[in-house]
Amino acid sequence: MVSPADVLTERLQRALVAAFGGEYAGTDPVLRPSQFADFQANVALALAKRLGSNPRAVATTLVEHLDVADVCVAPEVSGPGFVNLTLRGDWLATQATGQAADPRLGVPVQQPQLVPIDYSAPNVAKEMHVGHLRTTVVGDALARTLEHLGHRVVRQNHIGDWGTPFGMLIEHLLDVGEDSEAAKLLASDPNAFYQAARAEFDADTDGFADRARRRVVALQAGDPDTLRLWQELIDLSTAYFNSIYDLLDVTLTDADLAGESTYNAELAQICDELEAAGLATVSDGALCVFLEEFTGREGKPVPLIVRKSDGGYGYGTTDLATIRHRVRDLHADRVLYVVGAPQHLHLQMVFAAARKAGWLPDDVEVVHVQIGNVLGADGKILKTRSGAPLRLRALLEEAVERAAAVLEEARPELSPEERGRIARQVGIGAVKYADLSVAHDSEYTFDLDRMVSLTGNTGPYLQYAAARIRSILRRAEEGGVSPVNGPIVQTEDAERDLMLALLGFGDVVAGVGAALEPHRLCGYLFDLAQRFTTFYDQCPVLKAPEPAVRDARLRLCGLTLRVLEQGLGLLGIAAPERM
Ligand code: ARG
């Protein structure tokens, strides 16, 4: 199945060659959606100068050579030289019939690339915050979408599992007892554990601080008993992360863990290689990479510190190792870092240093998918009202409760169990959709009431649209009507508007994969759901004037449902059976 835009592009390109000669082969026809037609081609404006003619004349000649009678009603030249193209209803219906017969619904299978995606990356013994929630949700949607487009995704959960706080955390674990309730807090309320360890460190009774410092040394020296205790902390934290991933229906598993500690053995070599290549120099005792293109205040170059003056390695060194590993060992074609926007400079410096060091060849694309901050109603980074760090689990549970309240009002007739199940899908879907529907690099305000609303550009609105179609199809089946295959036909304008949107699905999914912008798919699905509403208002389905029209409309309903479900699925959002 080929999208309308692709078909028109191909026809326009043939016409350009026929009208102006072979040297115009492959010219971009500058096709855009239009408010006056389905599409407009603006190529005449771009070519007029080169052809030594005026745009309107170029457009007219182009139209004379344009062979689209089977696809469009007569093309029109308008304005300064736009070519307006309106698709024929019968052609749209035939295409929609083809889309319904296509298990991929028109989504292309692309030339496979290997794509490691770094996302989620919470820190051990710490609560995940809303920033981690957003990189988790956006990264997971990108992983699902790229996989669906045929790529091999390697999930890399770069958890923060190394560093000096582990001395204090291990000593605290020993003090409370490995099997104690206090230790188990790590898996349910990690901040409580962290705060308790911190308090012990600050109080420093019985030489705690000293023990903690010695523990760091033992950890770095690879002392087996210390490593075992460290692993215990990781396991408890991982159980906490997994409980959040489960609740969120995120695809990450333990097999995707590739935390900071994974790279420990490589850091010395990274520094040696940089030094040997003349890329790193010692400055104030620290080994630094200076990159001319990164300057700070007063135009002074900012260094990327790869080895601190105390001999320790930094976050940047580890990230150099991540790139080297992903390119050299995983054979990446494209590497994504779905990481908070405030880390942009850090990652740009890492990427630049890796290119210089030869660890990142020119033909491997590396992208920082920047994640914007999530703000509270006060416009500041989201915290609880008391200013304490927010407990993510509590937040997600609150979303589910609010969804339950909305459902209780909207659907009192559902059983409490069923409502509970749906509330979970709706509450979680609402939070995920809020993260996804805004451009990933912009900030947005976290507002649970808006997120769970059944109206507006929300997850629940789309879930509701899908559930409504299911109910139409269910009623048809109960009435003994189940038109599986067969043609979709077009009689009303609302049908053609819906078909035109449906046929754009493949292009949108491919666009999300190319631009790494899930919000495009959200916008598309929202528009699709609105067009469906208009269609359903204007075109009776079960009470259609004749059986052939009714059956065609039911098929159009079925196709819309599949596109909605598939689209929500790529975003990682469930479509409840009923709502
Ligand atoms: N753990 C880090 C944080 O919480 C994010 C790590 C992102 N990934 C990376 N390769 N730097 O901010």
UniProtKB/TrEMBL annotation:
Transferase listed as a keyword: no
EC number: 6.1.1.19
Cell location: Cytoplasm
PROSITE patterns: AA_TRNA_LIGASE_I
Ranges for domain DALR anticodon binding: 462-579
Enzyme class, spelled out: ligase
GO CC terms of this entry: cytoplasm
Record GO terms (molecular function): arginine-tRNA ligase activity; ATP binding
Family in the record: Belongs to the class-I aminoacyl-tRNA synthetase family.
Protein name: Arginine--tRNA ligase
Organism, as annotated: Nocardioides panaciterrulae
Higher taxonomy: Bacteria, Bacillati, Actinomycetota, Actinomycetes, Propionibacteriales
